[in-house]
Write a structure and sequence with these properties.
By secondary structure, the protein is mainly β. 11% of the residues lie in helices and 53% in strands. The longest helix is centred in the first third of the chain and has 15 residues.
Length: 136
């Protein structure tokens, strides 16, 4: 019985030391959000597309896992130049997403998420995520 108790304590000790993804670490994820916009070129009368960084206030969400179906754990707003930064993250897998707008054939507007996945593998590191390009 005494050996079982010691085994149980040691097992609990080793399993409780493993930290899950989330806040409390020393790494960060940074990136930018760009807007996709179309317009009719006055000279060529063709539809052109431009990308530009959004103004402040775009919500960027983070999930502390690679499961897109989980509820988000935190969100921040982009700065004046469309940039964002999540700090103090531990090692692990993360999912970031933003919402983009779309209009269907019936002219009904709806939002849909754009997901990006990242794995933090080192402490004291800064990871740059590829840019989000959205319709707004």
């Amino acid at each position: 019985m005494n050996r079982f108790f010691i085994f149980l304590v040691i097992t609990f000790f080793f399993t409780s030391c493993e930290k899950e993804p989330g806040e409390g670490g020393t790494s960060s994820v940074i990136g930018s959000v760009y807007k996709l916009s179309t317009y009719t070129n006055a000279l060529t009368q063709e539809i052109d597309t431009i990308f530009y960084q959004l103004d402040s206030g775009e919500d960027i969400y983070i999930i502390y896992s690679d499961n897109e179906s989980d509820f988000y754990d935190d969100k921040i707003e982009s700065n004046w130049n469309g940039q964002y930064r999540f700090d103090f993250l531990r090692k692990g897998d993360y999912t970031l997403f933003v919402y983009a707008d779309s209009v269907d054939a019936l002219n009904i507007s709806y939002d849909y998420p754009i997901f990006k996945h990242i794995s933090i593998e080192a402490n004291n590191a800064s990871y740059t995520l590829s840019d989000f390009v959205i319709n707004k």
